[in-house]
Amino acid sequence: MKHVSILPLYDATLSSIDSSYQLFSRVNDFMKYQGKPPFYTVELVGTQKKTKLNNGLYHIHADKNINEIVKTDVIVIPLLCGDFAKAISKNKKYIDWIKHQYHNNAEIVCLCVGSFFLASTGLLNDKKCAVHWAVKNEFKKMFPGIKITDDTIITDEKGIYTCGGGFSYLNLLLYIFEKHLGREISVLASKMFEIDIERKSQNPFVIFIGQKQHGDEVVLKAQEFIENNPTATFTVDGICDKFSIGRRTFERRFKNNTSNSVVEYIQRVKVEFAKKRLETGRKTVNEIIYETGYNDIDAFRKVFKKFTDLSPLDYRKKFAV
Asked: Where does the HTH araC/xylS-type domain start and stop, copy by copy (predicted)?
């Protein structure tokens, strides 16, 4: 049997705490239906008896204080809301306990932007972390040494699990059940809670937001130029000429400041332009592709799928309003 400690962190969301509690508890019910003993003991474990959640909108009561838990097997860090820096400061009393439990072989299951708090413990150093696309730039600024993954919604590294996307933590919990109890229980939980077990990526949901929190004026002007002209046909040399800068220097500075090459940035802007047209317009897919400045339809389709995991037609079917 595994002991699960769900932490009612200051300014966590009630939904992520309750969902975790319900899913771990229901897995015990599934085991019971199969004539097997319960697998999890689930408790809310805090630094005080009552904690404010969601900017004081709710209060939650802990079952036990962290000082009463000598050994736990799974620590669930819930999704945070509001001011991440403030939440990190308010939750500092958990850090030593979490680190001690992790070094005593506890697994850490971190839900979405709970990763801001987990990163503050130092346990994510030299590890991969999945972060919600909307706060990726903020996370990079606060924790520049942590490697963010863009291609999956779940990371699994040395007993630490993270996920990107507001409710993708449900997929992470299914992943944990599969690791602990096998595919059958994970699929059963997926069916009972109607969670799409095959969701693997944030890419279809991402709205591209260029990283602009840097001090390079030339790069910033180039970004704005590209974004303000999504239908134009660009060359890197042409952009360099416009801003009177050598190509090698410009490409290096652009990559360092935006985490994208110049070509990738142009592609992302054009894909975002096409996505909006696919969502709301009535033009054909080919007409929209030509409107982005691409003459090679197949080339754009490949670029579009690279960043969204969907073809333009499938994207329209999924998101058209």
From this structure: 220-318
Which residue ranges of the chain lie beneath pLDDT 50?
none
Residue 23 corresponds to which tokens in the numbers above?
């899913």
For residue 154, list its beta bridge partners: 163
Predicted local confidence at residue 244, as pLDDT: 94
Query: Whole-model pTM?
Result: 0.79
Q: How far apart are CA 196 and CA 174, in angstroms?
A: 10
Q: Examine the domain organization and report whether 162 and 303 are in the same domain.
A: no
210 neighbors 227 (Cβ within 8 angstroms): yes
Closest CA to 117 of 237, 7, 281, 235: 7
Quote the CA–CA distance of 315 and 279 in Å, as a whole number. 8
| 92-101 burial code (b ≥16 CB/10 A, e <16) | eebbebbeeb
Q: Closest by alpha carbon to 174, among 148, 151, 152, 200? A: 200
**Confidence at residue 40, expressed as pLDDT on a 0 to 100 scale:** 97
For residues 29 and 125, state if they share a domain: yes
CB 110 within 8 A of CB 98: no
The pLDDT score that the predictor gives to residue 84 is 92
Residue 193 structure tokens: 């809670």
Element (H, E) at 280: helix 262-280
Closest CA to 317 of 290, 283, 278: 278
Position 177 in a domain: yes
Give per-residue pLDDT as tens, 185-227.
999 999 988 888 777 778 888 888 888 889 899 999 999 999 9
Residue 87: domain span:
2-203
> What are all long-range contacts of 91-97, with beta carbons under 8 Å and residues at least 24 apart?
91/9, 91/10, 91/117, 93/47, 93/66, 94/7, 94/9, 94/47, 94/66, 95/120, 95/121, 97/66, 97/67, 97/69
- Among the candidates 172, 203, 234, a domain finishes at 203
d(CA 222, CA 225): 5
Q: How far, in Å, CA of 115 to CA of 124, rounded?
A: 9
Beta bridge partners of 149: 130
Q: Which residue is it, tokens 């992943």? A: 175
